[in-house]
Amino acid sequence: MTDSIRTSPLHPVHEAAGASFTDFGGWSMPLKYGSELAEHKAVRSAAGLFDLSHMGEVRVRGAEAPQMLDHALSSTMSILKPGRAKYGLCLTDAGTILDDLIVYRMDDGEAGTTPEFLVVPNAGNAGAVYTALAQRASGFDAEVVDESADTALVAVQGPKAETILATAMPQSAQALAELKYYAHLAVVIPTEAGDVPATVARTGYTGEDGFELFLGAESTEQAGDRGSAVWQAMLQAAEAAGIELTLCGLAARDSLRLEAGMPLYGNELDTAHQPHASGVSFAVPAKKQADFVGRSALTSKDEASQVIVGLRGQGRRAARHGYAVSTAEGAVIGEVTSGAPSPTLGHPIALARVDREYAAEGTELTVDLRGKAEPFTVVPLPFYRRER
């Protein structure tokens, strides 16, 4: 590990599994272990095992932690009930997006207990989000602690994820079955190295059912030990249940989230654009009573000159990030933010930021694919929706 590139606490596990690595958000993380197409299809049909330890974990606690987060983030976090989670945005003073994140309410809500939250930002933005939260906590009775270095994060995603986790921790099988989407609970995971305490959340970034396992520790070394033990326990549980659990890297995670129409920081989200131009208007509630950083600079949804749309390719060639989007007459009206062939749907798909007058479903557009205008059609999002 160099000063500029960090490695996951599970890095030796990935090396032993023959992973190909890539630099993502300042971390050397598995890109794939074999075929990224096979990894993608495994998550859609059975289950995939991901290391997400590059994500940040920032603990916010204190009597005024709920009010502080209402001030710091776009969503109203003070109404979040214990055991639940909520998506939100950390905005700049200009109303643009510093990061998108998930906030978990960790305390039990009993009288006399101190409110506590776990904020999970993206890997490359974890430091910036921690700094912003620490600054925005000024004047509030709230403490902000960066726990990223001492936390491993393992995810099991796919239609058979619940069966795998229930097999790994049968004592929690009923609680897992009852766990709602964007909810979490404390569990103990039996492993060959001993019991590992964890927070299991029913969240994810693939468009499938799935769980993320937060493994807190007292040091990076202990996080690695616990992460490796839980990683192996998930594989053993899948084998015992007769399920093939496929190791998955960032390539599959990206194609899965694109099919699910989920934004990626650095593509759809950045500090150059406000939420209404980035496909995340839902994260800025119009009726929020508390003032929050960036609110005064926000334009209204109707004032956004550009919006994010879904595009379906009519041919076989895929659009890529940064490619120009034009009208049929050749006028440039936007650009692709994410694009790839869809392994599940069998045709090219893309997200694009375009002038709002061209955002209606069915609008015929073109994308400049290295000098050739290829036809694309505006379609509803998400591209893929799992059967429930």
From TrEMBL:
Residues 308-384 form the Aminomethyltransferase C-terminal domain. One of its GO terms (molecular function) is methyltransferase activity. The keyword Iron-sulfur does not apply. Its EC number is 2.1.2.10. Keywords: Aminotransferase, Methyltransferase, Transferase. Residues 10-288 form the GCVT N-terminal domain. The glycine cleavage system catalyzes the degradation of glycine. Belongs to the GcvT family. The glycine cleavage system is composed of four proteins: P, T, L and H. This is Aminomethyltransferase. The gene is gcvT.
